[in-house]
Amino acid sequence: MSEDRPDLADRRFDVGVIGAGSAAEALVRELDGSGLAIVVFEPHLVGGECPFLACMPSKAMLHDASSGTSWAEMVERRDTIVEHRDDSAHAEELVELGATLVRQRAQIVGPGVVRANGLDVQVRHLVIATGSTENSLDIDGIDTCSDLVWTSDDALSTTEQPERLLIVGAGVIGAECSFIYSGFGAEVTLVHPGDRVMDRTAPGVSNVLSASLDRAGVNVRCGERAVSIRRDGDCAVVTLSGGEQLTVDRVLVAIGRHANTVSLGLETIGVDGSEPLPLEPSGRVRSEGSLWAIGDVSGHGQYTHLANHHARVVADHLVGTQTRGYDDVTQVGCVFSKPPIIEVGPSWSDLQGDDDVVASGLDLGDFPRATTDELEDGHLWLAARRSTGCLVAASGIGPKFDELVHAIVFAVDGAIPVARLQMSMQPFPTIGEILGPILRDLHAQLTAP
Fold first, then answer.
1. Measured between alpha carbons, how far is 108 from 105 in angstroms, rounded to an integer?
2. What is the pLDDT of residues 287-328, one digit of tens each?
3. Measured between alpha carbons, how far is residue 117 from residues 12, 38, 47 in Å?
4. What is the C-alpha to C-alpha distance for residues 287 and 414, in angstroms, rounded to an integer?
């Protein structure tokens, strides 16, 4: 059932879900056939950000930016792919799976009690799937230029084509949008306070990304930050920490996201919504009643595939074996820069200073496929643990690496010893040949006296 003002009086549900993004959709699918009565509350887009304002439009725009498509053609194709941000199909799927969809804001008012549309709804299990929100840029003058400052939602849904774009932040969104807008002819400046772009990745990855951004015409300014902004007609004038002033048409703020936990009423069940959720490995939140968190709001990463994993884990605890955990598979992510970046397991930054870890890396240019196909350069870094003899992490950038990543994920999740992996054969000439010498070097380090 889906209504703007549904009749919820005297209704009791087994599972209540606040938020109807990717994580919630995956949970409803996982619970299909369980016989549980499910109610989902969502005042905005059913399906969340990924299909409408994030993953799907960004990949369409990246494709068109590198294929000679005009801006107008891109906008038309992108908006068709995102169904013009019409969530009807997503809403219909939830209803077809048996969920009651309430297009209202919901708030927790006590253990197992959610208030929506002025009515209290009883639920046995409550799942928070409210996603995350962009961090704001707190600098002088920004309140006077709000129409000139973009979030990632704006950048990935706009019909405007700026000639000059300043991007603040060199993470996932900053990198992808740099390639998108430079690909459509904009003069792009990327400002980042750290000493290198994507600075949690291996240095070799940052180096290749910086070179690629430079070839794309992006002016990368590491070690600088925006300190103030003022309006000059229809433009923004941004002052950097070094004193330089940049005049641009739009400013894209891409400095990360934070979990949507404030104003949910969590304090009524003993949880401080202004702090990270006290989460158990099962996804259960330590609180009064049965409370769970899936997707971005959990604080355990911000990928759609990770949200889907969370849904599988929580469904297992609600109707399954009650054995799954958020950490029972390795985390993996791709950034669809040019070329794509992969991250598997803990980041390069996280593993620094860990004496149990050995690591090795190589550039892709040393391999025949890079020569035959005139590929952009790349770099792959792998890490293994002495205590287990198995791979623990990877950080890489290179053509087709977004497909190569699957082999690495299987090796990590399968806990296959490096001693065995380094014996494996890679077909010639393929991108995967880069794995062989890195694995053999890791094996030598692991077996060294």
1. 10
2. 999 999 999 999 999 999 999 999 999 999 999 999 999 999
3. 15, 17, 21
4. 34
As assigned by CATH, the class of the 332-447 domain is alpha beta
Instruction: Give the pLDDT confidence score for residue 117 in this predicted structure.
Output: 86
142-255 carries CATH number 3.90.76.10: no
Tell me how far apart the alpha carbons of residues 357 and 284 are, in angstroms, rounded to a whole number: 31
Can you give the pLDDT at residue 366? 84
Planar angle of CA 57, 32, 283, nearest 5 degrees: 70
Residues ≥6 apart with Cβ < 8 Å to 88: none
CA-to-CA separations, 97 to 42, 204, 448, in angstroms, rounded = 16, 46, 56
CB 56 within 8 A of CB 79: no
pLDDT tens-digit map of 59-87:
999 999 999 999 999 999 999 999 999 99
* Average predicted confidence (pLDDT) for the chain: 96
CA-based nearest residue to 443, from 426, 416, 421, 427: 421
Query: Is the per-residue pLDDT at 422 higher than 70?
Result: yes
Question: Residue 91 pLDDT more than 70?
Answer: yes
CA distances to 12, 123, 168, 449 from 255, in Å: 41, 36, 7, 45
Topology annotation, domain 2-48+87-133+258-319: FAD/NAD(P)-binding domain (3.50.50)
Contacts of 179 (CB under 8 A, 6+ apart): 62, 65, 66, 213, 216, 218, 337, 338
| 2-48+87-133+258-319 and 142-255 share one fold | yes
The pair of three-digit structure tokens given for residue 87, joined into one six-digit string: 């969530």
